[in-house]
Design a protein that fits this description.
The protein is 36% helix and 27% strand. It has 648 residues and is α+β, with helices and mostly antiparallel strands. The longest helix is centred in the N-terminal third of the chain and has 22 residues.
Length: 648
């Protein structure tokens, strides 16, 4: 017999070799019908895998992340089986689950386009209805290589060559067999609704020197009603796409002459950025941050010292050469080496710490063209960066203060649903990282303890740490339920060693400071993209780039409209005049689409009474009032927004 411990602490005995599905059946027929996978002693397993030792077990249903991952990973195999039936000779790369659904990278003998997706969906549904079983078989490396060499599938052969003998398994569903570690559903009958969403190009293994494969994205559900709900959200997401809204609201632009992935901020977008920057600067000022400014380039040796060149040099912009053959510069990929040099400017004492250097610093990283996506994936971006240099006894307190800043920002901008991801080093692959085991342990413990003391809802991800230290990443759900990584805090013992940073302790000896990296927004570009999609372009009044547009009903009242707008701007209310030679109805419609909070219509009556006729975004006409009354109303609304933030 073996002892099985459940999440609530209950312990039951089962015969050795019992499966997770059999355990679910012993608890409840309904549970057995809904369970998709199981975590056994910390590892997610197939439901039909025998359990041969005492174990802690957690059963995963659709509402669990691990349940969805298993469901969608199996769906990628269903897609592959359908493709193999429809396109004989097709070759397969990888087919993982992702945040919403799955994809498979394939090398097809004939092009696969968006128009082919319906027939592929139909084939997937046809296969799913047969409820074919999904079975696992462990194989030797020699057998795995022989299998795919005979099939002429160079992609799987390449993957197998990177694996160790004794760790390789095949999964079979119907006539399709795939190299895979799992886990998977017991059978394909669980999949009741299928939607293939798009086709894209993707270089094999993300390397632009390799062949471009076809990437097919899809999503599946255990009920058709869930697919229907998802499609509604998909339409809403299209309306909120920051690239679409950025163009409509005239916030940013990409020019092929400037270069892919290098955004141009238009006046309204620049105003939005400026307000966000000023907001964070005011918060940072209260916490004792000092603003610094560093150049956009640095000597290559700076990034060799920091370790960034060794880790990212090959995938970054290439060195800049000057007429002096001894000079070699790089576009700045990170701000932290520059801040280390600011720390080194003069000797530091234990009394000087903590030192908090903050900068809205623009950095450059060469993202492949196929991975660029609006403002969320660019080649030049501005981080709301800061680096805190502190003593060991100050580390936890400083880390917790940064958490306070992040939480304040989330409350201010109504990001109410989030989790904190503790990103740790991969203990099985330590060569990816720099620094000693001792320092890594201390850094990881500091993050775990700080998150616990702040009462954060956390998850732990191995292998997601930065190369120089662990981090706390904030994962935010937007207004329509999508998850974004937003904001990061990192503990670093390594850069202070690499740059030989010291402070004179109370014992009059030299000591090494600890460095905290933090960026609550992450980057201004990505944050604005997220904010656009979260709000649908309807920013809170205090943040809106344009708060008011004044609409003269004819050219005769253009001068009065400008007078009103000037008065509002003098009262710190952001205003413009729409004096186009268009009918007033057209002006109202156009500016409503731009999500302007207030439209002020002015004509003969308003000019005579020194007043305005007010329309509120989404609410319609609010009647006439004097300019002074309108200013008071806007000031009160902004004041109420700020007070509501403080109450949160």
């Amino acid at each position: 017999m073996i002892k099985i411990t459940f999440p609530n602490g209950d312990i039951r005995e089962y015969a050795k070799g019992t499966t997770a599905m059999q355990i679910a059946e012993s608890l409840s027929p309904r549970l057995a019908a809904e369970v998709l996978a199981a975590t056994v002693n910390g590892k997610v397993k197939d439901l039909n895998m025998p359990i041969n030792e005492d174990a802690e077990i957690k059963l995963h249903k659709w509402d669990d992340e691990e349940g969805k991952r298993t469901f969608w990973h199996s769906s990628s195999h269903l897609l592959a089986e359908a493709l193999e039936a429809l396109y004989p000779g097709i070759k397969f790369g990888i087919g993982p689950s992702i945040e919403n659904g799955f994809y498979y990278d394939v090398d097809s003998p004939e092009p696969i386009t968006e128009s082919d997706l319906p027939k592929i969906e139909k084939k997937m549904e046809e296969i799913a209805r047969t409820k074919e079983a999904i079975s696992r078989r462990e194989v030797s490396k020699a057998e795995a290589l022989d299998t795919y060499t005979k099939k002429g599938d160079q992609y799987k052969v390449e993957l197998i060559n990177d694996l160790e003998d004794g760790t390789i398994s095949f999964y079979t569903n119907g006539n399709f067999t795939d190299l895979c570690r799992g886990p998977h559903l017991p059978n394909m009958g669980y999949i009741k609704a299928v939607k293939l969403t798009s086709v894209a190009g993707a270089y094999w293994r993300g390397n632009e020197n390799n062949k471009m494969l076809t990437r097919i994205y899809g999503i599946t559900f255990p009920k058709k009603s869930l697919l229907d709900e998802y499609l509604v959200l998909l339409e809403e997401a299209k309306k909120r796409d920051h690239r679409k809204l950025g163009k409509e609201l005239e916030l940013f632009h990409f020019s092929p002459r400037v270069g892919a992935g290098l955004p141009l901020w238009l006046p309204k977008g620049a105003a939005l950025r400026e307000r966000l920057e000023n907001f964070l600067k005011n918060v940072q000022k209260k916490y004792g941050y000092l603003q610094v400014v560093t150049p956009h380039i640095g000597m290559k040796d700076l990034y060799v010292t920091s370790g960034h060149y060794a880790k990212y040099g090959k995938d970054s912009f290439q060195p800049i050469h000057t007429p002096d053959e001894n000079e070699e510069f790089l576009l700045k990929p990170m701000n932290c080496p520059h801040h280390c040099e600011i720390y080194r400017f003069k000797p530091r004492s234990y009394k000087d710490l903590p030192l908090r250097f903050a900068e809205f610093g623009t950095v450059y990283r060469y993202e492949q063209s196929g991975e660029l996506h609006g403002l969320t994936r660019v080649r030049g971006f501005t981080q709301d960066d800061a680096h805190i240099f502190c003593r060991p006894d100050q580390l936890k307190e400083e880390f917790m203060k940064v958490i306070d800043i992040v939480l304040y920002i989330f409350k201010t901008l109504s990001f109410d649903k989030f989790t904190a991801q503790i990103s740790l080093r991969d203990p099985e692959n330590k060569e990816k990282y720099i620094g000693t085991d001792e320092n890594w342990h201390k850094a990881e413990q500091a993050i775990i303890e700080a998150a616990k003391e702040k009462g954060l809802e956390t998850t732990v991800e191995l292998g997601e740490a930065a190369f120089y230290g662990p981090k706390l990443d904030f994962m935010v759900r937007d207004a329509i339920g999508r998850k974004w990584q937003l904001g990061t805090i990192q503990v670093d013992y390594n850069l202070p060693e690499r740059f030989d940073l010291t402070y004179k302790g109370s014992d009059d000896k030299d000591h090494r400071p600890i460095m905290i990296h933090r960026a609550p927004f992450g980057s201004m570009e990505r944050f604005v993209a997220l904010l656009l999609e979260h709000t649908g372009g309807k920013f809170p009044l205090w943040l809106a780039p344009e708060q008011v547009v004044v609409l003269p009903i004819s050219e005769k009242f253009n001068d009065y409209a400008q007078k009103v707008s000037d008065y509002l701007n003098n009262c710190d209310i952001r205003s413009q005049v729409d004096d186009r030679n268009e009918k007033i109805g057209r002006k109202i419609r156009d500016n409503e689409l731009k999500r302007i909070p207030f439209l002020l219509i002015v004509g003969e009556k308003e000019e005579q009474e020194n007043g305005v006729s007010v329309r509120v975004q989404g609410e319609g006409d609010k009647g006439s009032m004097s300019c002074e009354e309108f200013v008071k109303m806007v000031e009160d609304l902004v004041k109420n927004e700020v007070q509501a933030i403080d109450k949160k």
